[in-house]
Design goal:
Blueprint: H1 2-7, H2 10-27, H3 32-39, E1 55-56, E2 65-71, H4 76-87, H5 90-95, E3 112-117, E4 122-127, E5 132-137, E6 143-147, E7 160-162, E8 168-172, E9 177-181, E10 187-191, E11 198-204, E12 209-214, E13 219-224, E14 230-234, E15 252-257, E16 263-267, E17 272-276, E18 282-286, E19 299-304, E20 310-314, E21 319-323, E22 329-334, E23 346-351, E24 356-361, E25 366-372, H6 375-396
Antiparallel strand pairs: 1-2, 2-25, 3-4, 4-5, 5-6, 7-8, 8-9, 9-10, 11-12, 12-13, 13-14, 15-16, 16-17, 17-18, 19-20, 20-21, 21-22, 23-24, 24-25
């Protein structure tokens, strides 16, 4: 990921930041900027882009994925509120009765990677470049943060995972450990045993297991999620990312766990997904290298939705592909770009209990949000569509008057 960042020129970064800020202005008409224009008596309103009709697949097919927005920075109103609070007390600072502090700055994503969602539907995003964990309220878009040096010591944070008690697990390959935060965002423990280069994390809430992918060891490390003690290792180490045998890995990255406790692993250099049961036994694999539909070019992120579909984020192709349990491709979307549903350096994907899908990408520094339409919802939509079609057909049906058969005229001779 750092190699990608090095290749990105300063001018390109500037353009991306400009596009990002323009997008934020369009999507936040209630911001302080909009309020100031309104107070100035400007009758013009800031246009709001309507993304509600961006769906996959395209109509007239039943929508299965809906684009619902993105996260890139804290709300401008939060920054203004912080600055107003400081300005209101300038006389106290001048008199020396209050320590002087710097104006509040706008925090925005730079290189987001790990994703997690807590029981309150807050979205957690690990940003290794900012050195902080962004916590977005997905309803109000208000931002809270866990910052380096202020709340914990971070070097290069990558993976996030949340258990059912809202304990947050954070992998830091720079420090070769996994930090554990309690629900109040206070660091309370650390895991170091057996870890070399930790990446993605996943929690099996039923079996109380913590999975850690280690790209240097080519293994997935398994810990007790409560005692934090190591239990076992999946995969064989010491072969310099060259093993291709089923059950082994070459730089494993993304991890996910389904409702049955099965573990899904993005075997990145082997361009495949491997599946294991809760005991760590190999179950199956799917995927081959390539750039066509159903093929992988460095799969990095993986998530499981409520219908047990497998969502895979492809780092080279900048796309998301959705598979069934048999490894058959169901739908694909994405491609290189900054528009909704396009990606620039996609690295991770996560699903929550509300059928929302989140994707993180490092070049524009954003997390996109989608809504997954479940199988049951899609079936109901199909039935509603059929019913509407039937009613329309019945309403347009022409009523042909029935003409009684003509009576045969009798000839005079028949009288």
């Amino acid at each position: 990921m750092t190699e990608f960042s090095a290749k990105l020129s300063d001018s390109r970064k500037g353009r991306l930041v400009l596009c990002l800020m323009l997008g934020l202005a369009l999507l936040a008409p209630s911001s302080a900027f909009a309020d100031k224009k309104k107070k100035a008596g400007d009758a013009k309103k800031i246009p709001v882009i309507d993304y509600s009709n961006i769906v996959w697949p395209n109509p007239p097919a039943i929508a299965r994925i809906r684009y619902t927005g993105f996260y890139a920075a804290e709300k401008i109103s939060q920054v203004e509120a912080g600055n107003d609070s400081k300005k209101a007390k300038w006389m106290d600072r001048l008199a020396g009765t209050q320590p002087q502090s710097e104006a509040k700055v706008l925090y925005q994503l730079a290189e987001p990677y790990g994703l997690a969602i807590d029981s309150k539907n807050n979205l957690y995003i690990a940003d290794q470049k900012v050195g902080a964990i962004f916590i977005f309220n997905t309803e109000t878009r208000e931002l809270d943060m866990i910052k380096n040096k202020a709340h914990a010591h971070f070097n290069r944070i990558i993976g996030l995972a949340m258990d059912d008690g809202d304990r947050l697990f954070v992998s830091d390959p720079g420090l070769r450990h996994v930090l554990v935060f309690n629900a109040a965002h206070v660091a309370e423990d650390v895991i170091t045993e057996g870890i070399v280069n930790p990446g993605a994390l996943a929690i099996d809430r039923e079996n109380r297991l913590l999975y850690v992918s280690d790209i240097e060891l080519d293994q997935v490390l398994v810990y007790d999620a409560d005692s934090l003690k190591p239990l076992r290792k999946i995969g064989t180490t010491g072969h310099h990312h060259e093993l291709t045998t089923p059950g082994d890995f070459a730089r494993p990255t993304g991890l996910a766990v389904d409702a049955d406790g099965n573990l899904y692993v993005c075997d990145t250099l082997n361009n495949r997904v491997e599946i294991f049961d809760a005991d760590g036994k190999f179950v199956s694999t799917f995927g081959k290298p390539g750039d066509g539909p159903g093929y992988f070019s460095r799969p990095k992120g993986i998530a499981i939705d409520g219908d047990n579909h497998i969502w895979v984020a492809d780092g080279v192709q900048d796309r998301v592909q959705v598979y069934n349990q048999e490894g058959q491709l169901l739908i694909s979307f994405g491609g290189h770009g900054l528009l909704p549903g396009q990606f620039q350096g996609i690295v991770n994907i996560a699903a929550d209990k509300n059928n929302r899908i989140f994707t993180s990408e490092i070049y524009p520094g954003r997390v996109q949000q989608f809504r997954y339409v479940t199988d049951a919802e899609a079936e109901q939509a199909r039935k509603d569509k059929e019913e509407q079609r039937a009613k329309k057909a019945a309403g347009n049906k022409e009523v042909v008057p029935v003409t009684p058969p003509a009576t045969e005229a009798k000839s005079p001779q028949s009288k």
